Amino acid sequence: MKNLIKLxxxxxxxxxxxxxxxxxxxxTGTVTDPSGIPLPGTNILVKxxxxxxxxxxxxxxxxxxxxxxxxxFSYVGFETQEVTVTGSVINLILKDNVEGLDQxxxxxYGSSSKKEITTSVSSIRAGEIADINTPSVQSLMTxxxxxxxxxxxxxxxxxxxxxxxRGISTVGASQEPLYVLDGVPLINDDESINNxxxxxxxxxxxxxxxxxxxxxxxxxxxxxxxxxTNGVIIITTKKGKTEKTKVTLNTASGWSFAxxxxxxxxxxxxxxxxxxxxxxxxxxLGEIENQFDQLSLGxxxxxxxxxxxxxxxxxxxxxxxxxxxxxxxxxxxxxxxVSTSYNKTExxxxxxxxxxxxxxxxxxxxxxxxxxxxxxxxxxxxxxxRLSNDNAFISPLQSIGQSPLTPALLEDGTANVDxxxxxxxxxxxxxxxxRFVTDIWRTTANIYGDFYINDYLRLKxxxxxxxxxxxxxxxxxxxxxxxxxxxxxxxxxxxxxxYILTNYLTYKRTLGDTVxxxxxxxxSFEETxxxxxxxxxxxxxxxxxxxxDNAVLITNGGSNKTKYNFLSYFARSRFxxxxxxxxxxSIRRDGSSRFGQDSxxxxxxxxxxxxxxxxxxxxxxxxxxxxxxxxxxxxxxxNAEIGDFASKDLYGVTTYNERLGVSPIQLGDNELxxxxxxxxxxxxxFGLFNNTITGEFDYYNKTTNxxxxxxxxxxxxxxxxxxxxxxxxVNKGFEVSVNARIISKPSLTxxxxxxxxxxxxxVTDLPSGDIIDGVNIIRKGETISSFYLYxxxxxxxxxxxxxxxxxxINTDGSLDKTTTNNVSKASKIVTGNPFPEYQIGFTNTLxxxxxxxxxxxxxxxxxxxxxxxxxFTSGNGKFFDNQTIDQLDRWQNPGDITDVPQARLNQExxxxxSTRYLDEADFIRLRNITLGYTINPIFSxxxxxxxxxxxxxxxxxxTITDYDGYDPESTADFNGNxxxxxxxxxxxxxxxxxxxxxxxxxx
Length: 1003
Fold this sequence. Notes:
Blueprint: H1 2-23, E1 24-32, E2 43-46, E3 52-54, E4 60-66, E5 70-74, E6 81-84, E7 92-93, E8 104-106, E9 111-113, E10 121-125, H2 126-129, H3 137-141, E11 148-152, E12 161-165, E13 178-181, E14 184-185, E15 209-215, H4 218-221, E16 232-237, E17 246-258, H5 267-280, H6 285-295, H7 310-314, E18 318-330, E19 334-346, E20 353-368, E21 371-385, H8 427-433, E22 434-452, E23 457-476, E24 488-511, E25 515-538, E26 553-577, E27 581-592, E28 601-612, E29 625-639, E30 650-656, E31 659-666, E32 675-688, E33 693-705, E34 708-712, E35 721-725, E36 728-745, E37 748-765, E38 771-773, E39 776-778, E40 786-789, E41 792-795, E42 802-805, E43 819-820, E44 829-830, E45 838-848, E46 851-861, E47 864-867, H9 870-873, E48 918-920, E49 923-934, H10 937-940, E50 947-961, E51 984-985, E52 992-1002
Parallel strand pairs: 1-7, 13-16, 47-51
Antiparallel strand pairs: 1-4, 2-3, 2-5, 5-6, 8-9, 10-15, 11-12, 13-14, 15-16, 17-18, 17-52, 18-19, 19-20, 20-21, 21-22, 22-23, 23-24, 24-25, 25-26, 26-27, 27-28, 28-29, 29-32, 30-31, 32-33, 33-36, 34-35, 36-37, 37-45, 38-39, 39-40, 40-44, 41-42, 42-43, 45-46, 46-49, 47-48, 49-50, 50-52
Helix pairs in contact: 5-6
Keywords: Cell outer membrane, Membrane, Signal, TonB box, Transmembrane, Transmembrane beta strand, Transport
Subcellular location: Cell outer membrane
Organism: Aquimarina amphilecti
């Protein structure tokens, strides 16, 4: 019996061993491309193992695997495929993937595969930006596509962002592109009450973005007609897929610091400097010491009792917290995506904070086999806390001009607001007894129905809605500049709503075996309503009672309502012949209530064509030139972003001799018409070495005429200006992008992307002659808003006087370069401009097993910034403002060679608007960097988690520049009352340098 048992066990072990051996096998086969050419070097990997091989020169391979294992086949330029092992021979044909040529690109009222695009359209996909943690949607775009310049105005958390596509194409109208979110053209108005713009996309959660498409040339943008002059940015949010429910959790915490701090005089240096400046100006030692006594508020400045670093008080450490939760999935009939997020950012400027809440839902459902409906809703609330804008004397950054002798706080901890001690209002008083909070509620929604009338004809109807509700409450109490009024409170509310109704038919058909034809015909109606109101009160019994119902007196108030609308019709036809010759024609007719009665409608046609040369027989199997598409386009786009009633004669209420009446307040132009931009584009898409290297090249020429221009009028007219169509601007340039897949293996991938953009802007027609606006000028033959300044010539070594070149015109037409110490004898010249001529970008993406590493460098060259604040803080002691450290190199004795004039208190010596305060703003910046580690799915799935990734990311970690100011990108907010203009800095805060740790989880 025992022998029988032993025999049974032995047989069972032998059978199991046989079964195991039966499962183990050598898998062989050949890998080819669609034309049958072998693909040597193809990577084959057994999924979730390190077992991998490559095909030989003839495309053959052999690998050990078990039945049921999954083999992953990957090769540069082809789609990665997974095959389950069922037999011992697997021959595979890999499908072409020419830089995502089958990738869907949105082109406005439709979509297209990338290979069929005949225009200049650049795209960013979720996969390219998924691992980048950024504070805003615009940050995702920076240095990702050519021809697009993105600049954050300052380091405030809510700071406005400038986006320029292929240069500046207008003067008096909006320079911002049109943003289209899930089919809804977004409201992009600045509703700030203190001339401090707020980012219009601040309510969007970057993690919700699925794709961003940039329509850059006129043929691509002309389908949006009146809004396309500045380019179109189509933002598409994520949607559900036909799969089981997937839940994603992203959470991160970050720490932020100013990218740069400047050096200023400390208390001892300040005393030495201003003692010298006072004596140079004829003041006695006693007089200047008496001034020091006042500034120090009785403290012992002689023994350095006070040495206030106002910059450290203004620029603080910031903290960022992010959490994002989403769920998606669906069946064959219905898919869904829902997400919610929260972001809290404590900025690098004292008193500047942001809280953002978002909720998004998107559902798509098949009603029948030929009809589909969907709804997409996004709700966000953003709360912004701040003290002031860049241009106010209460700005934290302007506090750097306070004397280091002045104590910031009194002994009891309250802000020092003594008028004799502080040079201007101490911002800490606003921090302690003030409040400036803005709440922004934003709702965007889109409901659509998609109906297939037959196999060729499709009708799509969309209803879009966008609502921006911005409420600002500001209170300034007993330690602010309004203390004498008992405090002042302001409440402002602005609500803007936009309704869009769009219907269009799309016809698609294949004619014969070679011609694909499609056509789109549709129309849209859009109405935008805005209403606002404000109330101001003063006289509050306590700093703790900050609402207007506690004000003793309501001093001012008002309300306003306005609306405008667009009525549009559009058509587009597209042809593809033999997948080689592509044609695209479009036309749009827009009508706007903003223009003159006889000029409300405008036509915006466009045409483009492309030749896919690589599909011709002579290149069909080329390894070196594996893809080549040549394209050209032409089109006209428009701009209508001006005041709602710019063409009208307007009247306002007035009083005369205690009688109420009306009087003219605006001179209208009934012939005011569309500003139009005509653009030509020649481009090429190419792929080399079986698409290991791919890229694009574009040359463009944009001419904008009939500029919507606020033309100055002589005072005798009774008006200061009138909006008219005058002038012409030309932008010319080229763009180059190159992408390379250097290594593509299952355990190692390395991709590199480089971008280069050149743009030249020129005013080519200006019938009204030069227009001077502060330090800027608009002049024919020059870049728009060029700087118009006296030319600084340094310092007279004999007496320390500031010198300027006279720049009078000689008889031969040259400029006289003799110098003078009297600026009134000098002439201003055009010197430098605010816009970069060259832009570069470099992105590196590396994945090694479970580690991923990515960084992006950005560079801009050719722009300059004028430092308006330099006249005060680098002004060799004309005022008592603290000075930058370079003032230690001032002229002091005859024979000194320096660029800093002699310090002279209360005297002009080089503070005029000159090139002394103009600085080149060239820079190279490490825009972002990310290092991540993903836990092997074999381990994470044991805990029912599909993916677990830890990461570190950094933003603005390194800036290489010779710019002397805070930052080569930070410029002042526009404020017509302060003299601040384009390309100027006025105590503008630097951007934040942020370090972030985070985790991504999918389950």
